Amino acid sequence: MEDDFSQWYTDVVKQAELVDYGQVRGTMIIRPYGFAIWENIRDVLDKKFKETGHTNVAFPLFIPESLLQKEKDHVEGFAPEVAWVTHGGDEELVERLAVRPTSEVLFCDYYSKNIHSYRDLPKLYNQWGNVVRWEKTTRPFLRSSEFHWQEGHTAHATDEEASQETERMLSIYADVVEKYLAIPVLKGRKTDKEKFAGAKYTLTIESLMHDGKALQSGTSHHFGTGFAEAFDITYLDENGDSQYVHQTSWGLSTRIMGALIMVHGDNHGLVIPPRIAPTQAMIVPIAQHKEGVLDKTYHLRDQLKDLVRVDIDASDKMPGWKFNEYEMKGIPVRIEMGPKDIEKEQVVLVRRDTGKKEFVILAELPTRLPALLEEVQTNLYNRAKAHLLEKTNVATNMDEFATILEEQTGFIKAMWCGDIACEEKIKEDTLATSRCIPFEQEKIADTCVCCGKEAKELVYWAKAY
Amino acid sequence: MEDDFSQWYTDVVKQAELVDYGQVRGTMIIRPYGFAIWENIRDVLDKKFKETGHTNVAFPLFIPESLLQKEKDHVEGFAPEVAWVTHGGDEELVERLAVRPTSEVLFCDYYSKNIHSYRDLPKLYNQWGNVVRWEKTTRPFLRSSEFHWQEGHTAHATDEEASQETERMLSIYADVVEKYLAIPVLKGRKTDKEKFAGAKYTLTIESLMHDGKALQSGTSHHFGTGFAEAFDITYLDENGDSQYVHQTSWGLSTRIMGALIMVHGDNHGLVIPPRIAPTQAMIVPIAQHKEGVLDKTYHLRDQLKDLVRVDIDASDKMPGWKFNEYEMKGIPVRIEMGPKDIEKEQVVLVRRDTGKKEFVILAELPTRLPALLEEVQTNLYNRAKAHLLEKTNVATNMDEFATILEEQTGFIKAMWCGDIACEEKIKEDTLATSRCIPFEQEKIADTCVCCGKEAKELVYWAKAY
């Protein structure tokens, strides 16, 4: 992993049986273990969306070309990577259909027909689905031609309400990614250069991978009335006056699986945080051919199964082989039980994150195991947080900026004048892009790191996936 | 509904806010209420799939044309209704990509690479997703260019195991459709003419709509080794000999939403069975401007919400307007509470299925309401079962066959010689198709209903959606 992070990533993705490559360039098959992790992330998010009043819907996969073209910035941003359907059966279509790269225009078209009065607002819709972006260079989870995600699309009576929604959804993303995926994030706003095509502004959570590169991990966009004007989405307010709606959209995708791998993984493979691990504890019988061992371990599984997500591997593979497999898959805790343990009425618990072993008497296991899982969860977060802080450095001029990137990558905190020219120059000279203008501002210098003119705000920069 | 069933269907689908039409011909937008029902059906099925050892996966949306062509019967069946992607961005693709109409070939390709030994079997995969079939005439849920479904794809060591799987999954479909959707079904096998393109045989559940037309409601296919031979999917058995795997696939789609509407609906709109109703009971405050009414009804909601899926409509619309809306949406039970009820410490319960009212004292509501919901569930099933039996008639010759169809449609039980020529002639003369060869065979005559030659088996026939 230290020698060739990119190869390590590809190996882990394959060997932990998360994905396989699809036949079509840049597509992936999400295998049972990979999909089970994604299902857990999805379920946590879905619950939070519903608790905050959102409802799920399913909009079509195809977008007529004319509809996609209605909002100019939006189509410019997405048209280059659209997959086009031109034929249905033997028949050539009169109009090409885009396979949705994102669904703003479909929701806008619907809202323009279904919103009439202030009583119809807010509309708080979400959908889980697949989208297609015809990417040139692809990597599983990180950048794939087809990916899975949720996209929320909302419409509000006022700009203020839309702002609150944009922030609220970003907070939910940050909360889930930090508390469940144990990945610390920076919260902030994208620069105009990096915002979503068609948005007034974009909020983002940014995380830092083990190799010091950043990953955009979830975004929430405020559209103002831009789309409403392009699609004529209006409502009659309480005074009977026609008003444009204020919209948002927000998305989190299977890309986050890439973050999970690259934040917590190590040379033994994946490390999955307990709260989203499909299997939290794997029982491996030792000397299972000896009398009573299998019975006892199955009994143990039955005792634990309402407390934690536990499984047992009673196959005829060698224990060492099983240890390697479940380390590769990042199962948080391994439970070993053999004849000696049975005699002493104990088990051996082995943490995946530290490798530390402990002996626990059976009577204490129902309290010790859940507690240990929480310790693993906390440790993973703290370790990742320490890494993020360690890899975050301050630059006040471009020499410092370049030196940091050469020596260790990571986030660079630097002041910016607000001019897109400086942002472009930094990217050209260093390959680092602006990741976000953090909500928590500090004034670390008076002048822009690039041009030396008066600084407007603090920006986090990094090389990114 | 009696005058124009087709128009009634379209009206209910729109007015109950289940779907809206998409911009692209034959596509649909599944709105919050429609999707919430589908989510409940999905959750019940998903749980049963997992309990029987299946795991979810996500395979790609696109299929290279050459891959689709590998199994001859399969491609002939599906090619005419494939939507083709020919361009990615500005670039013309070297090979056209089919938007998946079903995913057999993708799973086969994967299995051919990932199955090596008998230890790798069985593979019990399922995926939830969208597929596209470019249909000429479309109707929401019943026949749409894009629809949502689950498709299970399994591989087994023996023909016997694959047979058991095919039957097991059909049983799960029958069980869920009967017990949760309250729709009685016929279980049987499709004739060779009606089986899935590429299958050895297809099992089906068939239900009967209010207008007497049948609807195929879920199918489970046994592929034998047909796909395995086309895709070279082999494993080494315990003796080290190479063997072809035996495969199945099975699917249930949003089409079942059409059955739900057309089996239980009436002139007031939808009737949703309690076990899958997103809202099982809707509280409508009466004279809600009077002091204490809103407080009491909200309090009631809070008391009931852990027992049943309950909601309250405290909007400023008139109660009569609310009654109509929730009747249209088919909410199983309405709870009315006004000043007089509060005084008497009671509520009024109104069943959606029969319209019957009852007064229940508050102290008894936590036991009475769940019991009433079960009564509604049972009544819906019994009513639909009685309808199915009433509309099932026996024909021993084509005159009887034609007379039944003219007078009242429904299922026709008739003996068949097994010759596809008779099946085709029946369809040509009457528009009825063979729905299934029921598992429960009876010998109602010695001769084929069509040709008069020796009968082989009993078949259910019907006009169908």
Automatic annotation (TrEMBL), chains A, B:
<dbReference type="InterPro" id="IPR006195">
    <property type="entry name" value="aa-tRNA-synth_II"/>
</dbReference>
<dbReference type="Pfam" id="PF09180">
    <property type="entry name" value="ProRS-C_1"/>
</dbReference>
<keyword id="KW-0648">Protein biosynthesis</keyword>
<comment type="function">
    <text>Catalyzes the attachment of proline to tRNA(Pro) in a two-step reaction: proline is first activated by ATP to form Pro-AMP and then transferred to the acceptor end of tRNA(Pro).</text>
</comment>
<dbReference type="GO" id="GO:0004827">
    <property type="term" value="F:proline-tRNA ligase activity"/>
</dbReference>
<dbReference type="InterPro" id="IPR016061">
    <property type="entry name" value="Pro-tRNA_ligase_II_C"/>
</dbReference>
<dbReference type="InterPro" id="IPR002316">
    <property type="entry name" value="Pro-tRNA-ligase_IIa"/>
</dbReference>
<feature type="domain" description="Aminoacyl-transfer RNA synthetases class-II family profile">
    <location>
        <begin position="25"/>
        <end position="273"/>
    </location>
</feature>
<dbReference type="InterPro" id="IPR033721">
    <property type="entry name" value="ProRS_core_arch_euk"/>
</dbReference>
<dbReference type="Pfam" id="PF03129">
    <property type="entry name" value="HGTP_anticodon"/>
</dbReference>
<dbReference type="InterPro" id="IPR036621">
    <property type="entry name" value="Anticodon-bd_dom_sf"/>
</dbReference>
<dbReference type="InterPro" id="IPR017449">
    <property type="entry name" value="Pro-tRNA_synth_II"/>
</dbReference>
<keyword id="KW-0030">Aminoacyl-tRNA synthetase</keyword>
<keyword id="KW-0067">ATP-binding</keyword>
<keyword id="KW-0436">Ligase</keyword>
<comment type="similarity">
    <text>Belongs to the class-II aminoacyl-tRNA synthetase family. ProS type 3 subfamily.</text>
</comment>
<keyword id="KW-0547">Nucleotide-binding</keyword>
<keyword id="KW-0963">Cytoplasm</keyword>
<protein>
    <recommendedName>
        <fullName>Proline--tRNA ligase</fullName>
        <ecNumber>6.1.1.15</ecNumber>
    </recommendedName>
</protein>
<dbReference type="InterPro" id="IPR004154">
    <property type="entry name" value="Anticodon-bd"/>
</dbReference>
<dbReference type="InterPro" id="IPR004499">
    <property type="entry name" value="Pro-tRNA-ligase_IIa_arc-type"/>
</dbReference>
<dbReference type="InterPro" id="IPR002314">
    <property type="entry name" value="aa-tRNA-synt_IIb"/>
</dbReference>
<dbReference type="Pfam" id="PF00587">
    <property type="entry name" value="tRNA-synt_2b"/>
</dbReference>
<comment type="subunit">
    <text>Homodimer.</text>
</comment>
<dbReference type="InterPro" id="IPR045864">
    <property type="entry name" value="aa-tRNA-synth_II/BPL/LPL"/>
</dbReference>
